[in-house]
Amino acid sequence: MSVKKIAVIAGDGIGKEVMPEGLRVMEAVADKFGIGLQFDHFDFSSWDYFEKHGQMLPDNWKDQLGGHDAIYFGAVGWPEKIPDHVSLWGSLLQFRREFDQYVNLRPARLMPGIIAPVVRRDGTARQPGEIDMVIVRENTEGEYSSIGGRMFAGTEREIVLQETVMTRTGVDRVLKFAFELAQSRPKKHLTSATKSNGIAITMPFWDERVLEMSKYYPDVKVDKFHIDILTAHFVQRPDFFDVVVGSNLFGDILSDLGPACTGTIAIAPSANLNPERKFPSLFEPVHGSAPDIAGKGIANPIGQIWSGAMMLDFLGFKAAHDVILKALEQALIPDNGAPRTPDLGGNATTQDLGRAIAKHVELV
Ligand code: NAD
Ligand code: IPM
Ligand code: MN
Q1: In what helix (H) or strand (E) does residue 309 lie, and over which residues does it extend?
Q2: What is the atom index within ligand 2 of the atom nearest the CA of 93?
Q3: ipTM of this complex > 0.90?
Q4: What residues make up the domain containing 3?
Q5: How far from 144 is each of 31, 79, 164, 165, 247, CA to CA, in Å?
Q6: Which site among 88, 222, 262, 295 is 20 to 30 Å from 188 CA-CA?
Q7: Residues 302-326 pLDDT 10s
Q8: In CATH, what number is assigned to the domain containing residue 8?
Q9: pLDDT tens-digit map of 128-187
Q10: 247 C-alpha vs ligand 2 centroid, how far in Å?
Q11: Which domain-ending residue is among 263, 294, 324?
């Protein structure tokens, strides 16, 4: 049996609580299918590591992680101790850039047993499957740029500047991924998030590239919305969307909003992909370290578990992915007496829900 090497980084806060549940479910599915998985744990990319070493990562982190087939990540950030931009630019954002994980794939789907806070126009509840979109977020450039600076700090003349960077290669490659994804889905519908009415240099360029790329995918229905009205449409008619592609910042915002429309951001997974597989890809929940609930053992582990399913799919184990998704659905059906964490209206613990899902993996 060939063994896949997974680098495991739990990180901060609830990352440490949801990660064991992700691993529990992964082990259950690996047993079921006879998949060989080796988990190598790393303590860096966390406040604990920073406190000891004065930096978020060891100097040779690329060597330490580079030989792995994938990285399974929890969450990072402990703003009470270290400013977020320092911890994030010192860890997760480096992984995305240095490992060229230029696609951030973020599904948002209404699952059984969860009530969507966004109802239909006639006031009736939306049903599972009715919201089923994938946000494709550009993940290595755009608004997340380190080009800029601060001058005359603390004086009346203070000036701060941060440039948005869009390269043709960078935009085209994520668009190509998004179009191909749309083409592979039944609705074949792609929506582009823009703001070319106000951000008058980079965003018209983005629109131009979308138009150009659309010529290669004539069977994909394409539309675009400015980001302001797009957020309104997400809330008022989330069922309209299929694949939604956006720049780094727009994709970030939409990928919290989409899952929020499906009931809780805690279930949302993500895959930071280097599609060429030159570097390891990274799989993590969309949510962060949630300092407000960390240490209580009540975080919902589904985002972490679903991210693990996406990782297995990317590593070639589609059937294992499908079993985890089925187990998640089974565990969420109220008739099955599933434990629910507080974000889902229950009082179960992280472990209760993780165990229930692992049990369903054995059963389905
Ligand atoms: P957050 O996602 O950590 O939390 C937002 C809200 O959602 C909180 O009320 C939290 O309790 C709740 N929540 C999040 N995940 C949950 C879960 N699994 N179960 C139940 N409730 C959950 O966002 P934030 O508060 O903006 O950020 C906190 C820290 O995490 C910051 O340091 C931020 O920079 C960092 N962050 C990291 C990542 C990442 O590692 N990818 C992502 C987002 C935020
Ligand atoms: C995410 C997070 C990160 C981002 C932060 C923590 C830098 O919000 O993964 O969505 O903005 O990419
Ligand atoms: Mn985010």
Answers
A1: helix 302-314
A2: 7
A3: yes
A4: 1-106+268-364
A5: 40, 19, 7, 8, 9
A6: 262
A7: 999 999 999 999 999 999 999 999 9
A8: 3.40.718.10
A9: 999 999 999 999 999 999 999 999 999 999 999 999 999 999 999 999 999 999 999 999
A10: 13
A11: 263
